[in-house]
Amino acid sequence: MYTDASQYVEEVLNYLGRKSSEQPEFIQAATEALTSLIPYIAQHPEFKKYALLERYVEPDRMIMFRVPWIDDKGMVRVNRGYRVQFNNSIGPYKGGLRFHPSVNFSIIKFLGFEQVLKNSLTGLPIGGGKGGSNFDPKGKSDTEIMSFCQSFMTELYKYVGDDVDVPAGDIGVGGREIGYLYGQYKRITGSYTGVLTGKGIAYGGSLARREATGYGLIYFANEMLASKKNGFEGKKVVISGSGNVAIYAHEKVASMGATVIAMSDSSGYIYDKNGIKLDIVKQIKEVERGRISDYLKYVPDATYVDSCVRIWEVPCDIALPCATQNELPLASAKELIKNGCMLVAEGANMPTTLDATHALMDAGILFGPAKAANAGGVATSALEMSQNSQRISWTFDEVDHKLHEIMKNIYLHASEYACKYSHEDDLVSGANIAGFSKVAEAMMQLGVV
Ligand code: NDP
Does ligand 1 come within 6 angstroms of the Cβ of 320? Predict the structure, then answer.
């Protein structure tokens, strides 16, 4: 079945394997996506003549730059900055900035590649890009963060613009960093445009953007449950991470009657059988910028385990990986299956390894892939762009309502394509094909560029 299409995909993946062998995360993302596109590609033999896949896997451009900054002791430090502008066939490049020591071209390319499909799935006119730096914000003072952000933007501003490329936050880049980045952009260019999203409300941000990825994840997972005539009421939930996505996923899922019993950071996880108190996690992470283990200072009878990956050993009905890539490997998937988990929805980007994804789906666990399940953040960023262009601000409820509708539509769209090309629960294929079909159509119409 699909011999020519399978062969074409294999050729492109072999090419990537040869040319980008030092980029394992990018190859992982491309392999997952392209393999699931085969039934769709089989219907479009013209793609091969137009080298559509070969063009699709090459970013439009990749930018790398030096970011010098001065620490509190007066020492000059140097980091690397990156921006990958992957594909702008359906709209300006859009995607976050990540500040984390692990950042390199492989990480940024995988995130940019995923972003193209995700942004298309939202139904909004946004292309895909991603950027960041190997700068580690942990343990840095406010002045050091500002010095770094100003230096980073002093180079990045040449490549971005409200109709060109609109970055946002990601790991290590929250409201504070976006503020410093935007301040420097405005200072250099003298213009007040919506060049970044995730901005503070006082200077053009959108209400509900902070909450959007986490809330959107729960809206999406709720559609998945509803398709099986089920819901969140009374469910036990495990959420990895305790950053932006994890915190607001917790907030929304708890409001729907579920109990979150475990959360983590990169050092370990906490377990509270009575339900983790979100106001304490917010205090630790958003105010004190502390460690998740500090939860025990407030709730001494909770448990702390010195390993983040072991969070998946906690028996639960629903697992929401909201921390980082490849944080849920095969061994953890087996634990979830053994303990009777019924749904996994990805808040983080590519948190589940390929073999773990297959194991979960083969075991009949409902699986919500990141590019659909966590698209609420970028969708709300696009709503922020609309408000900035029109010089208006919508209320929290207006934005939240639009977000909810967008997530329902993403679910409908992904499940429609899943039914058409695979089977009804294969949202991985459904999301990939639904996102890809629009980009491919645009690329064909735009000529050989
Ligand atoms: P944050 O920086 O706010 O939080 C990341 C959290 O994950 C921190 O608690 C961090 O802990 C934790 N973490 C990192 N590595 C691990 C690990 N190996 N095991 C357990 N916890 C870990 O980032 P976000 O919440 O914004 O992003 C989280 C994920 O969601 C990323 O994959 C991101 O790409 C994705 N995403 C984010 C969107 C957004 O709008 N922010 C939109 C769509 C996707 P520590 O403090 O110890 O590092």
Answer: no
241 alpha carbon – ligand 1 mean position (Å): 6
Across residues 32-53, what is the average pLDDT? 97
Q: Which of 114, 205, 92, 105 is nearest to 159 (CA)?
A: 92
Q: What are phi and psi of 120, to 5 degrees?
A: -65, -45
- Could you give the CA distance from residue 85 to residue 353 in angstroms, rounded to a whole number? 25
Q: Considering Cα of 348, then 414, then 434, then 403, what sign does the dihedral take?
A: negative
pTM greater than the 0.85 cutoff: yes
Q: Is the CB of 244 under 6 A from ligand 1?
A: yes
CB 8 within 8 A of CB 48: yes
Hey, what are 146's tokens? 């500002």
- Residue 99 in 3-state DSSP? strand
pLDDT bracket for residue 1 (50, 70, 90): confident
Active site residues: 130
Q: What are residue 320's DSSP bridge partners?
A: 239
Residue 187's CB: how many other CB atoms inside 10 A? 12
Ligand 1 within 6 A of CB of 335: no
Binding site membership of 213 for ligand 1 (Cβ less than 6 Å): yes
> Cα separation of 307 and 322, whole Å?
16
pLDDT over 80 (residue 207): yes
Measure the CA–CA gap between 170 and 118, rounded to whole angstroms: 15
Yes or no: say if 252 and 289 are a contact pair by the CB < 8 Å rule: no
Among all chains, which residue has been given the structure tokens 């990805």?
346
Condensed to tens digits (0 to 9), the pLDDT of residues 91-106 reads: 999 999 999 999 999 9
pLDDT tens for 161-171 read 999 999 999 99
* C-alpha span between 316 and 336 (Å, rounded): 8
- Identity (one letter) of the amino acid at 34? L
Query: Separation of 140 CA from ligand 1 center, angstroms?
Result: 18
Average of per-residue pLDDT across 264-270: 98
Nearest CA among 133, 134, 199, 136 for reference residue 162 = 199
Cα dihedral 317→322→325→326 (10° resolution):
-20
Using most ligand atoms within 8 A of CB, pick from 25, 177, 244, 282 the residue to mutate for ligand 1.
244
Nearest CA to ligand 1 atom 44: 348
3-state helix, strand, coil in the chain (%, to 5): 50, 15, 35
